[in-house]
Amino acid sequence: MITCVVEYVIDPRRIEAFERFGRRWMELVDRHGGTHHGYFLPGEGASDKALALFSFPSLAAYEEYRQLFGVHPDFVAADRIRDESGCVLRYERSFMRPLLPGDLAGDLVAER
Fold first, then answer.
1. Is 78 left (phi over 0), alpha (psi -120 to 50) or beta?
2. How does DSSP assign 52-71, residue by residue?
3. Entry pTM
4. Residue 76: partners with Cβ closer than 8 Å, 6 or more residues away
5. pLDDT tier for residue 105 given thresholds of 50, 70 and 90
6. What is the pLDDT of residues 19-64, one digit of tens each?
7. Cβ atoms within 10 Å of 43's Cβ, excluding its own
8. Helix axes 73-85 and 15-31, enclosed angle (nearest 10)
9. In Å, what is the CA distance from 69 to each residue of 11, 48, 108?
10. Residue 91 forms beta bridges with which residues?
11. Mean pLDDT confidence for 74-92
12. What percent of the chain has a predicted confidence (pLDDT) above 90?
């Protein structure tokens, strides 16, 4: 499994648009082979930071999903929310390998 972590700098005045954007992407990830773990929005502290985490079974599965960007009408519509509202100022994407509770593979690596 591979987990994509997206760190956003958002316009706090446009949080409602960011929430619409996030809801749309959660649907798209889940519909196209991934598992969305949610968006994490400002609570206390910095009001312009947000995170999204979602996983795919493999990097290859993620790449299949990415091929729909800019092509599939639902993906284009989701990006339009971001682009027209200006709710996202910038973002950075990174990929991580999760270590989850009960993950025996992680325990085996630690024992070696």
1. alpha
2. EEEEESSHHHHHHHHTTTTT
3. 0.83
4. 70
5. low
6. 999 999 999 999 999 999 999 999 887 799 999 999 999 999 999 9
7. 7
8. 160
9. 23, 25, 38
10. 8
11. 96
12. 79
In angstroms, rounded to a whole number, what is the distance separating the alpha carbons of residues 89 and 9?
6
- What is the identity of the amino acid at 75? F
Six token digits for residue 14: 């446009």
- If you write DSSP's letter for every residue of 21-43 in order, what string do you get? HHHHHHHHHHHTT-EEEEEE---
Q: In whole angstroms, what is the distance from residue 68 CA to residue 88 CA?
A: 20
Residue 22 CB neighbour total at 10 angstroms: 22
User: Which pair of structure tokens corresponds to residue 32?
Assistant: 């196209």
Write out the H or E segment, with its range, that includes residue 9. Answer: strand 2-10
Q: Which domains does the chain have, with CATH numbers?
A: 2-111 (3.30.70.100)
Q: What type of residue is 5?
A: V
